[in-house]
Amino acid sequence: MNKSAIGVFDSGVGGLSCVKELLHILPGEDIKYLGDTLRMPYGIKTIEELHRCAKDNVAFLQRRGVKLIAAACGTVSSNVPKEHLDNLTVPFVDVINPTVIAALKATKTKRIGIIATPATIKANSMGLRLAELDSEVQVIGVACPDFVPLIESGHINDDVIRKSAEGYLAEIRAFGADTLILGCTHYPLISAVIADILGDGVTLIDSGRETAIGIRMTLEKLGLLNERENGGTAEYFVTNNTEAFDGVAKVFLGEEANVNSILKNIED
Ligand code: DGL
Q1: What's the 8 CA to ligand 1 centre distance in angstroms?
Q2: Does the global pTM surpass 0.85?
Q3: How much distance in Å is there from the Cα of 246 to the middle of ligand 1?
Q4: CATH 1.10.760.10 fits 6-94+209-261, yes or no
Q5: Residue 157 — φ and ψ, nearest 5°?
Q6: Which of 21, 110, 115, 153 is deepest in the core (most CB within 10 A)?
Q7: With contact defined as beta carbons under 8 Å apart, do 28 and 5 qualify?
Q8: Confidence of residue 263 (pLDDT cuts 50, 70, 90)
Q9: Where are the domains of the chain?
Q10: How far, in Å, is the centroid of ligand 1 from the Cα of 77?
Q11: How sure is the predictor about 2, in pLDDT bands with cuts at 50, 70 and 90?
């Protein structure tokens, strides 16, 4: 048993797709969430830049005494292996394995689509892991560079995001995937739009939700769950001002998010 908080980070609001599920499946756990909104978007950064961001985020959360850290970020998970985070001192969960396993469970035709940021598609970590686990699986990856900036500015269910999604999803449709991995944790925030465009024949895999399930499994395995069944708290930090984050968080989580800004310096 361990009463310390779970640490979760992403570039912005995307990791809230993981938090939303954590609040549901582990209501007794405290959560400390870091959205690195100042350096968002991550999906067009170099591996070196992503490494720097991930290390800073890990250090920030560890200074706040978390018992586990989750990179609720497909881009960091695909480009910065845990072994490269030399400052990491607590158990670490990323997006790749839980998400890929859920997709393999869901697919019947073994045709899987992945939509994600340019850096995630380029790294192809999810595609490689899928092939490792099932050599018959066929995969198409489509980068969607416009999604994160649109979602961060509040386009969650309107004509702007719909038009953008129709363009990106045409390739997924043409490929005939029966399962689509939302390989960026921001994308579950627009899953209603994506589901509407693709229709019932395509199962969507929410990488944020699957990461939350991966966190629970890891805490269980390591004996680190908080035994409290309810009453967990969530604290949110962002690296620039809180307005945009507040707005999206409220719509997506359905509650005020109590966000702190660490405008000065992530190293504080
Ligand atoms: N939500 C993150 C991901 O899963 C980061 C996206 C971005 O900042 O570009 O990839």
Answers
A1: 13
A2: yes
A3: 18
A4: no
A5: -155, 70
A6: 115
A7: no
A8: low
A9: 6-94+209-261, 96-207
A10: 10
A11: very high
**Cβ–ligand 1 contact at 26 (below 6 Å):** no
Please enumerate in sequence order all residues whose Cβ is within 8 A of that of 88, keeping only pairs 6 or more positions apart, or say none.
58, 62, 69, 82
Q: Is 226 in the pocket of ligand 1 (CB under 6 A)?
A: no
Q: How far, in Å, CA of 100 to CA of 94, rounded? A: 11
Q: What percent of the chain has pLDDT over 70?
A: 98
Pocket lining: 35 vs ligand 1, CB cutoff 6 Å: no
User: What mean pLDDT value characterizes the chain?
Assistant: 95
- pLDDT tens figures, 115-143: 999 999 999 999 999 999 999 999 999 99
Residue 44 CA: which ligand 1 atom is closest? Answer: 9
Fold of 96-207: Rossmann fold (3.40.50)
With a 6 Å cutoff on the Cβ, whether 42 touches ligand 1 is yes
* Tens-digit pLDDT profile for residues 27-54: 999 999 999 999 999 999 999 999 999 9
Q: What is the pLDDT of residue 254?
A: 86
Task: Give the residue-averaged pLDDT of 83-92.
Answer: 97
Helix (H/G/I), strand (E/B), else coil: 116 = strand
Number of the ligand 1 atom closest to the C-alpha atom of 78: 10
Q: How far apart are CA 242 and CA 189, in angstroms?
A: 18
**Phi, then psi, of 206 in degrees rounded to 5:** -90, 110
Q: Which residues have C-beta within 8 Å of that of residue 178, sequence separation ≥ 6?
A: 106, 107, 108, 109, 111, 112, 201, 202, 203
Active-site residues, by number, are 73, 184
Query: 96 alpha carbon to ligand 1 midpoint, in Å?
Result: 13
